[in-house]
Amino acid sequence: MGVEVAVRGLTKSFGGQPVWSDISLTLPAGEISVLLGPSGTGKSVFLKTLVGLLRPDRGDIVIEGRNLPRLSERDLYEVRKLFGVLFQDGALFGSMNIYDNVAFPLREHTRRSESEIRAVVTEKLDMVGLVGAEKKLPGEISGGMRKRAGLARALVLDPQIVLFDEPDSGLDPVRTAYLNQLIIDLNQRTEATFLIVTHDINTARTVPDNIGLIYHGHLAMFGPREMLLSSTEPVVRQFLNAQRIGPIGMAEEKDAEELQAEAQAGAELPPLPPIPVQLQPSDGRRRRAERPPGQWCRDHGVEPPPGSFAGPDGQRTVELPAFLTRDGVPG
Ligand SMILES: Nc1ncnc2c1ncn2[C@@H]1O[C@H](COP(=O)(O)OP(=O)(O)OP(=O)(O)O)[C@@H](O)[C@H]1O
């Protein structure tokens, strides 16, 4: 089982310029969380701070009773072994073949024999569907394969927490769909805690158990997927529905004048789209952390947008409680 990551009051600046401040959230053990936010809001900085590559100005990151910002370099080095990180470009060594790239953390951080290393590398390459590509150089394979190789490398030390920095950047929609399925299947198999930074709204809507949004130097919201997908909070609604109307502007937040002009022009955000069902593991079992669709909405007295929790063919894939169906008649 993965471990919980509790972040409290985290603040980070560079040269006196704050990137974000006072971020508090808990990544539940073994669950998948997605972190969203406009470009430049500091999502990558957040991941690097979590894994201890950057020191926060203040705040706590508590994992298994240890507060990372307070640890010595030596203890931090140990805690870092709990993490696997998939960097944006896969961060593979260009001169090493895929096998050696994936074997690298094992050779650096463990005393395992080459035959033990071979067994682990083969297992991880099999997990990401790359058996047969061992001898290729990163420059000889596609972007999607490089991401998968980076993922195999992130998994070799059997991490309890896996951080993904834009795993879908530069991938076509079909490859993104395959990668998303792979992420769900790996979460099911490894039981690690996953945090994914993405700009892909479809990924954000269907893959995670929890969603967070960083905006304007703060965490605008973090919580269960249904909470954000049914939220009418303007920033969350605008971002999760990829709209131009709302507080977020092209370069930064819109000023009062722009928002007033928008209001005068009668510009309104379209209705919330239906909440899709979550992507399921391909082994046919339910997700471990799955809550029944509609449960968060029911527990919080929130009516989900019409058509929510239908499968891709528009058919309901789950029994909905009477609360979620018009007049108690399943729609
Ligand atoms: N080591 C550093 N030193 C100084 N400034 C930095 C450093 N790393 C990041 N920044 C700044 O922090 C801000 C946030 O950068 P970051 O890459 O985390 O944003 P992001 O939300 O991941 O963006 P994108 O979605 O475009 O990838 C940027 O203004 C960036 O220039």
UniProtKB/TrEMBL annotation:
* InterPro entries named in the record: AAA+_ATPase, ABC_transporter-like_ATP-bd, ABC_transporter-like_CS, P-loop_NTPase
Q: Which SMART domains match?
A: AAA
Q: Does the keyword Aminoacyl-tRNA synthetase apply?
A: no
Disordered as annotated region, ranges: 254-331
Q: What keywords were assigned to this record?
A: ATP-binding, Nucleotide-binding, Transport
Q: Where is the ABC transporter domain?
A: 5-241
GO MF terms on file?
ATP binding
Q: What is this protein called?
A: ABC transporter ATP-binding protein
Q: What lineage is this protein's organism placed in?
A: Bacteria, Bacillati, Actinomycetota, Actinomycetes, Micromonosporales
